[in-house]
Amino acid sequence: MREETRAEGIDRDRRAPDAAGADDADRNAAGADDADRDAAVHELEAEFSALFVRARKAIAEAANAVSPGLQPGAYKVFTTIARRSGCTLSALADELGLDKGQLSRAVTELEGLGLVSRTPDPDDRRAQLLALTEHGSAQLSAAQTGRRRAMDASLSTWPVQDIRHLSRLLHALSGGLERHPAS
User: Fold this and answer.
1) For residue range 98-153, what is the model confidence (pLDDT) as tens digits?
2) Are the CB atoms for 67 and 112 separated by under 8 Å?
3) How many CB atoms lie within 10 A of CB 140?
4) What is the distance between the alpha carbons of residues 115 and 109, in angstroms, rounded to a whole number?
């Protein structure tokens, strides 16, 4: 019996370095995976940074096309009203994460330019519903035409399924960033 125990011990001792080596290999592979992931995330961040710079420029150009001197922040309010026609100032403030005073100034500017109108909310006499005017709709359409052409040209060689896949990935990333904001 002692021989069997001793043999098992020798076998175990012989296997121990292999098992330890396997654990080291697993750790090294995991470390390489972590390094690859870190590098990929840094690369993605750099690409997003470049994309955000270009997007800010495009928004400034579109704002200027809608009305010379229109600030990009007011343009963002304008396009959100276009998407959410009939929304209240409170709903708009929640969606954009702006305080009502700042938002009210932007809406007043847009209203003064004839781009947006306010109408009383039939369900709440204290609130007003925001919508684009005909002039605002025409200006937005004209401003977005060039940007859409540029996007179409950039994606002209992409298969439709790749465009849709990118859209889904960006939506998933956006949702993930919303659930896990930066500290």
Assistant:
1) 988 889 999 999 999 999 999 998 888 888 999 999 999 999 999 888 888 888 99
2) no
3) 20
4) 9
